[in-house]
Task: structure prediction
Amino acid sequence: MKRAFMVIFILLVITGCIEKQDKVNLSIVQEPELRANDTAVKVAIASVVSPKESYAYYDEMIQYISQKLGGPVKTVQRRSYQEINQLIQNNEIDLAFICGGAYIDDNGNTTPGLKLLVAPQVYGKTTYNSYIIVPNNSNYTDFLDLRGKKFAFSDPLSNSGKLYPTYRLALINETPESFFGMDENGRNNSFFTYSHDNSIIAVAEGLADGAAVDSLVYEYIKNTKPEIIAKTRIIEISPPFGIPPVVVPVAIDQFLEQRLKNIFLNMDKDEEGMKILSNVRIDRFVSINDNAYDSIREMRKRVK
Result:
């Protein structure tokens, strides 16, 4: 039953929600006045994975931060990366887990209003990849085999789920619209699922012929839901990119910024923190330089 519900959900995304994205408020959590008489530290979570998965993925970490700060921490989630960026730029939140693509603006600069706090180190690295995946029972062996097929992107600002495959097409003078084309009803064959796990499910269930997904999410699901990953196959792995960072608003209180940074950097040094990190497949959090995201900047400039 649960599987059937998820298939229906993905079908709704493909056939309805994407066409209405300019008309419908896509926010998952409606909080019009996040700062009104509320002193809680607010943490925003971009939908790298779907809402239910996100809360499971981050809940223990948020509780840990709250415990270390000695005060309440509230989680804010939005459907799109752009909505999260807007919250940061408006100084409505104190901390955000975002994608590397959302960290870079359309001109290849750091997105205004954001600054790096820390980044996760996973399997000894502070990089990740974009995976191009297809159904395991398909005969596709190359990205170019997907011409004219249904293709799932995660989010318009995603590096691994949108920018990288668009860059790959730009290298052969193609766009997603020209390469993937349209279906018999005049709709684009490429569409957004707004989370990497939904893109993986779309491919696994045959609702998409291919997708570009975050390698970290793919490997996480491989460990937690191997039956889904078994229905997919990787046909291309991108070069490494700077890992999705943890950011804060430029205007954040400096004392709070330092406290948050210390909590993350020392998380692997106590038993509770180590357990939480292990559960989400993170070695530890580390400081990271802005130039780690230069390769994303170069791609962004190419596909403008």
Observations:
- The chain has twelve helices and 13 strands.
